[in-house]
Amino acid sequence: MTSDSKKELGVGIFFLALSVAYMLGTTRISTFTPFGNRGLDSRSVPQLIGFLVFVLSSVHVIQVLIQVKKSKQDSVEPLEGNRDQVCDTDEVICIEPPKGSIIARIDTVVPVKLLLSLLYLVIYVAAYQGVGFVISSTFFLLAESFLLVKKEERKRWTVFIILYSIGASALIYFIFTKYLSLFLPSGILG
Amino acid sequence: MLISGFASVFTDPTGIIMILFGVTIGIIFGALPGLTTVAGLSMFLPVTYVMASNIGLSMLTAIYIGGISGGLISAILLNIPGTPASIATCFDGAPMAKKGQAGKALGLGVFGSLIGTIIGVLVMVVLSPTLAIFTLKFGPWEYFSVTFFALTLISTLTGKSVVKGLLSALFGMMVATIGLSPIDSAKRYTFGSLQLTSGFHLLIVLVGLYAISEVLSTAAAKQEQVKVLDYKMKGLGFTRKDLNGNWINLIRSSLIGLGIGILPGIGGSTSNIIAYSVAKNSSKHPEKFGTGIADGILASESSNNASVGGAMIPLLTLGIPGDGATAILLGGFMLHGMQPGPLLFQTNGDTVYHIFASMILGTFFMAILMWAGMRMFVKILKVPTHILIPLIVVLCSIGAYALSNRVFDMWGLILFGILGLAMSKFKIPVPPFILGFILEGALETNLRRGLEYSNGNVMDVFTRPISAVFLILTVLSLGSTIIKQIRHSAKAAGKGAQS
Question: Is the CB of residue B13 less than 8 Å from the CB of residue B189?
């Protein structure tokens, strides 16, 4: 099974499981029909949505399984060590990505920066109320900017990033609270 | 009414400054590859919280106009479309720039954008009030059919698989059912949480799915040093001779953009490619397309800009957004206490005509700014993403927090940001999800009301002419897409068997 088929199967199974959980959840919705049941109650539409998702995800899973079966009959198994192929599903062409290509680079670069960005975002949100806008934003801007700047340029940008992070956070706080009358948490700065 | 709109715009200098500011911001966001109009709108939405509704919404529409137009700068000078709406501009814009005529390419692009926006906005101004009067006759069944049609249409038009499109729309509807039910306010999927009782705010879903996921994926991508081509632009950048034989192309492409803009979910990102293909197919010299000719740039830029007016029509008359940017605008309207739909023209007519007038003004501001300030926008292309991206996150977070002064909404932002990333990774189209989320309330309310009015008789939906027409259209659009996909997979299977 190709990685694309696995992904598609995963999508189908996810929606199938979601629909079952969602339909089970409808049993906990209270209904209210003071004028008799002339139409639908608060439970009906979620039940309908859950049922449709169940049917469509089943169709999707069956489609993927049929496709996998067909492609097994039609094509030759890929060579060992050649599994990460780039496939154009329309043209049924598969090529192996050369080492150092964009795809190979994205595979190695994406997860680390993405996960760190997400981690910084989670810490930022967690600290937002307690620590306050200015301090949490300054640290978030610092951390995220240093994460994104190229390693070889990090030294050159250090002073700018520090000043920019402090200045931008303070300026944004000032503009939004003084001129735009929005409430932003001041946190430990009182 | 439009004259009073202009009077209201011109008597308020702050409003004019905000339109100018909005257009500038829009052009910058449109020009920077990786950042889109939606990110710009999300970032500046909190700034409008304290503004008068007409000024705030005018600024947002100005960002929209600027954003769609700004994409041409990077498409021509970097050969990277600033927004998906400028993909086809690269086809002829970049080759023209490489021939040493970048100034001419930019000038033609701005001119195409100007004509496209004017045609789109004028049709919007004429058509929207008339359509609003027509939609006033709609009862629950008609609303139900229209929203049902919009949902199925977007599911069939976006993405390669109709099943995944429909699943995405239903997934959006599932998320929308969290909170209190319409009509009888029963708690649904709140899991005992007080925060979840009010459900997820539209803006949290939109900003998370579009802006945060976009920012995270840009952060994760490898940062490349951009090489901006040099250019010289005298006057408008082009001569009258360059437009010879292109007026029909301009009008046709604008009308294509307008028509596609009206359809929910696809907008400028599709219209520019379709208009380019049509221009090429109906040209006397199709072989010259792709070598750097004016026809291609004008077709692409006029069509994507005309989509702005097109996308605004269903938003204003039915409350159905035409694309991601209009979905954010819908959120903007709701934040300012207005519900787009047929009653908008009656209840907030002054604001609507103020927005119309400011859109026309914004169109001219866009052209003037791009012609006069091109050098400044080109310099901004060199601003590194490690400076911009964290700032966008901070400003989007302010928007989320300021909605109800609670951190819960910021968690929602992260949740939908991750969801957006996962959806793009698994090739599940996002627009149907958004429309499903937005329209679930209207769909459910009207379905339940319709059934109550007709004493539980569901056949009533087929006996009313307008709703019957929309249901027939739904069946036709679904049927034709399914047949097309079956034919396509049969063809692919045939090819596979041959090889």
Answer: no
pTM above 0.90, yes or no: no
Nearest to A53 among B49, B170, B417 (CB): B170
Whether residues B397 and A118 touch (CB distance < 8 A) is answered with no
A92 contacts B496? CB cut-off 8 A: yes
Asked if B452 reaches chain A (Cβ–Cβ under 8 Å), the answer is: yes
Question: Would residue A88 count as lying in a domain?
Answer: no
Q: In angstroms, rounded to a whole number, what is the distance separating the alpha carbons of residues B179 and B177?
A: 6
Q: DSSP character for B137? A: T
Size of interface A-B (CB pairs under 8 A): 189
Taking CB atoms and an 8 Å limit, are B184 and A42 in contact across chains? yes
Amino acid, res. B42:
S
Calpha distance B373→B387 (Å, rounded): 22
Which structural domain, as residue segments, surrounds residue A59?
3-32+39-79
Q: How confident is the model at residue B384 (pLDDT cuts 50, 70, 90)?
A: confident
Q: A interface mutation test: which of B35, B401, B423, B488 has the most A CBs within 10 A?
A: B401
In Å, how far are A147, B1, B269, B313, B384 from B34, measured between CA atoms? 17, 39, 14, 28, 11
Q: Are residues A118 and A172 in the same domain?
A: yes
Q: Are A114 and B216 inside 8 Å of each other by CB?
A: yes
pLDDT at B116: 94
> Which residue carries 């100034």 as its tokens?
B103
Quote the number of domains for chain A.
2
Say if residues B59 and B18 touch (Cβ distance below 8 Å): yes
What is the per-residue pLDDT across B19-38, written as a single tens digit (0 to 9) for each?
999 999 999 888 887 677 88
